Amino acid sequence: MNRICPRCRKVYSYNLKKCPNGCNEKIRSESNKIYDKYQRENSEFYNSKAWKVLRESCKNKYSGLCLWSLYKHKKVKKGTTAHHIVPVSQDKTKALLLSNLVYVSDEAHREIHKLYELNKLETIKQIKEFIQVYDLEYGGRGI
Predict the structure, then answer these.
(1) Of 94, 101, 125, 126, which residue is least crowded by CB atoms under 10 Å?
(2) Domain that holds residue 114
(3) pTM
(4) pLDDT at 17
């Protein structure tokens, strides 16, 4: 059985799951650019040098691992996003604090935001517990 890529129209095997021309990544990249330019709140903050440096510090602190997947699902996953525990829209004073950030994967980030809609305080408490466990295990300096 074969699939047809909606972007490049290439026919490829159903077993591959992704277009061999890399169209899935290109579509995601284009979608992210549009979101960042027109829909993202606080875009000037997320494009600032201070944020980019802090995001790298967060990544280094957690050794590039997704903390949520590690402790919640007991799986080692590569993180991709620095997540604000207390959102920037809620408290701008905590926006540039490393203690308000946790490094997570895209899937975990979506899961956390869904949980925020249901029970924000419980989810924040759970994230802080994961950070404490990580700091105890690795001394807050990464693996």
Answers:
(1) 125
(2) 21-138
(3) 0.72
(4) 81
